[in-house]
Amino acid sequence: MSIISVKAPAKINLYLHITGRREDGYHLLDSLFVFAKDGDVIHVRSSDRLSLKITGAYAKNLSEEDDNIVLKAARLLAESCHQEPVAEIVLEKNLPVSAGIGGGSSDAAATLKALLRLWNKRISDRELKEIALRLGADVPSCLAAKPVQVSGIGEILTPAPELPDLHMLLVNPNRPVSTPAVFKARGENFSEPFPFTRKMTDFASFVRELSYRHNDLSQAACQIEPSVFDVLEELGSDPLCRLARMSGSGGTCFGIFSNCFDASLCCHRIQKKHPDWWFLNTRV
Ligand code: C5P
What we know:
Elements: E1 4-21, E2 27-45, E3 50-55, H1 69-81, E4 87-92, H2 103-119, H3 125-135, H4 139-144, E5 148-152, E6 156-159, E7 167-172, H5 179-185, H6 203-211, H7 218-224, H8 227-236, E8 243-246, E9 253-257, H9 260-273, E10 278-283
Parallel strand pairs: 3-4
Antiparallel strand pairs: 1-2, 2-4, 2-5, 5-6, 7-9, 7-10, 8-9
Helix pairs in contact: 1-2, 1-3, 5-7
Bound molecules: cytidine-5'-monophosphate.
The site of cytidine-5'-monophosphate has 11 residues, from β2 and α5.
């Protein structure tokens, strides 16, 4: 029986400016989303019913019940395709949960892609994006799974200009951070949008440009979960790290390095001090 596997890569917000708030409470963003080469994986195969099993390091942090975003994605897609929502799904959960790197959103996007193939269905890009947005503000960009400038609440996607290869160390204090709580705790100030509009292939100038931008949710995340501040301090004070920032609503932070060796050395040093934190040395 054929098995379809689709990667659900970690999403990283290189910067995240909150530029306004809609009447329904959702916030308007300006952000550059990139995707790591590593992440979770969705496997699907035919079945006469819908089921989900979760494996991997973070399996225990998630429920396999109906409220899992993977099952929600399967049901919404089936409805749009006039298809019975039947498939055996396995989610390999390698990324920490409630971590600001789009784990759930990326899993949902990968599920949509995998099931379209399994069910041999086609729907328009517009319809697929609508389903994605109903599942979560970050799901449309996770469907793209390549660098995008994001605005609106997450639904307006513009291809990002060419970027240099980036070696990154992702670090999470292994403490979940609630996205609604972080948005609620943020101050009332808004930032200006500051999208990347021109090609940026030189590493040093890219890092300099990025340093002019920030993550408007960092302060609130650090207040709610002080260990996020410790992660930012550890990365930011490492002499090999060229820039450290938080992704999404936290608590995962990333350090940018000029090569994978420097990223490994930094990982080794921090891991010795904080063996209970989560680390991923990856590329985008
Ligand atoms: O859409 P998603 O489920 O990822 O959003 C989780 C929560 O984060 C929302 O309920 C909202 O409180 C907050 N949020 C927001 N503005 C966004 C995205 C999320 O206020 N653009």
